[in-house]
Amino acid sequence: MNISIILAAGEGTRMKSKYPKVLHKVCGKPLLKYVIDASREANMGKSVVVVGHGSDKVIDSIRDDDVTFVTQPIGEDVPYGTGFAVMQGKEYIADDSCVIILYGDTPLITGDTLNKLIEYHNSLDNVCTVLSADLEDPTGYGRIVRDEAGDIVSIVEHKDATSEELKIKEVNSGMYCFKGKYLKFALDKIDNDNAQGEYYITDAVQVLKNEKLKVGVYKIANQEEIYGINSRVQLQEAEKIMRNRINQSHMLNGVTLIDPENTYIEDGVVIGRDTVVYPGVVIEGNSEVGEDCCIGQNAKIVNSKIGNNVEILSSTIIDSSVDDESKIGPYAYLRPNSHIGKNVKIGDFVEVKNSTIGDNSKASHLSYIGDAEVGRNVNIGCGVVFVNYNGKIKQKSVVKDNAFVGSNSNLVAPVVVKEYGYIAAGSTITDEVGRGNLSIARARQVNKEGWVFDKGILDKNK
Ligand code: UD1
Ligand code: CA
Questions:
Q1: Which of 31, 82, 88, 226 has the most ligand 1 atoms within 8 A of CB, as the residue to mutate?
Q2: Considering the domain boundaries, does residue 462 fall inside one?
Q3: 405 touches 430 (CB < 8 A)
Q4: Which helix (H) or strand (E) holds 144?
Q5: Which ligand is nearest to the CA of 103?
Q6: Same domain, 251 and 192
């Protein structure tokens, strides 16, 4: 089986974090997950992830059938280095397989580039192909040393390089494609005789060249794909690049983004054609937005499904769904498990939680709808409260089709309002409202004539 070995045992001290580096996120997805996804796109049957520092947390966070973890021993008396890390995955390397080596902290690498690397590697029948790029500032990277014919001679680490070698701009990305048999051969030969006393996987190049085997370099033009993340500053740079990639792909698919630099769409979100997204919008998780929608400024949509022709203005929608033609906001809050039907209006300062709202219903202003089942063509007046909590448990209310709930009413759960039930404004409803009935549940108005004058508050003759 073709596999990738993904190195992720390093500590990542410069992140200044209590969490393992590879679990930090770019556009909502952990760094390591991007690398695993790229490996999958390159048709690797398995990703073998080498973990060390914070291994428990890393293993806990990613559970996929095609991902296997191996733990690199970490400590003062054990060896260290990229070569030692790759050795941990040795048992998964089949002789006749293709193995790509990747880092868990380079999220910008694409499946497309890996496929090209493999294609190039196979077309030349190399035993090892190094992925490289030219960098304006190659400081810290291993340099690709070539001979007069342009063939790779070795990779020299920055710390081991001569002043001449330090001038080389072409760097080792740390990603490689190997023939399994020869990778294993090289792993048996590399030692830790260098400036850092580490086992370098880069030494495999020389080991294989010494055997007169074919080693090549595949150089890519887009250097950002090899960027490793070592600090929060680099994390933010990667975020910017990734955000741009995601937003570009939506625009190329027919979505209008008014200000892509201020639009935050996570990897994996689906948006239909002719939808317009305004600045400050955040769309996260497993969200899907249909066609011809208008997502107004500062809306936040998390794990939710939005139909076609929906308008959402400055509202938050979490773990919910909104069907076609509905209008949400401004300033509405749809909390988890809210299902809004077609052509519904959920207006300003309306909060909905764990409720369904049927087609053509309206709650235009200032309401709380919690644990409710609201039918079709229902009007929920301004300021209506579904009183779902009695201090101990949450209870459910049902409002059937064509009911009318007057402004400032309370529906004390559990309670049912039947079809065409009408509730007078200001009522506190605790009992069922029958079909076609009007319920008034408030104190009758009493008028005391001249009360102000009788009390001497105001002189009647003035
Ligand atoms: C390595 C390369 C260098 C290349 C650079 C690209 C070597 C010797 N050098 O250098 O040529 O230009 O990457 O970024 O390979 N890791 C482990 N276990 C270890 C050591 C490292 O899992 O024992 C992981 C780290 O978590 C990291 C990756 O391997 O993700 C690279 O390690 P790092 O120490 O950053 O390598 P460099 O010295 O930067
Ligand atoms: Ca590094």
A1: 82
A2: no
A3: no
A4: strand 143-146
A5: 1
A6: no
Considering the domain architecture, whether residues 418 and 305 belong to the same structural domain is answered as yes
At 119, give phi and psi (nearest 5°).
-60, -45
Banded pLDDT at 394 (limits 50, 70, 90): very high
Q: Which residues surround ligand 2, an ion (CB under 5 A)?
A: 228
- Smallest Cα–Cα separation from 243: which of 229, 222, 228, 257? 257
Asked if omega into 330 is within 30° of 0 (cis), the reply is yes
Residue pLDDT, tens place only, 29-74: 999 999 999 999 999 999 999 999 999 999 999 989 999 999 999 9
* Least distant ligand from the CA of 32: 1
One-letter amino acid at 365 equals: H
Which of 49, 339, 111 is closest to 119 using CA atoms?
111
Cβ 296 under 6 angstroms from ligand 1: no
Tell me whether residue 452 is exposed, middle or buried, using C-beta atoms within 10 angstroms of its C-beta: 0 to 12, 13 to 18, 19 or more: exposed
Across the range 126-155, mean pLDDT stands at: 97
Strand partners, 260: none
Domain containing residue 161: CATH number: 3.90.550.10
Sign of CA dihedral 56, 69, 232, 30: negative
Specify if 280 maps to a domain.
Answer: yes
Query: How much is the pLDDT for 461?
Result: 87
User: Could you read off the pLDDT of 278-325 as tens digits, one per residue?
Assistant: 999 999 999 999 999 999 999 999 999 999 999 999 999 999 999 999
Q: Is the CB of 72 under 6 A from ligand 1?
A: yes
User: Distance between CA atoms of 419 and 273, rounded to whole angstroms?
Assistant: 38
d(CA 298, CA 288): 17
> Domain range spanning residue 62?
3-226
Q: Is 170 a pocket residue for ligand 1 (Cβ < 6 Å)?
A: no
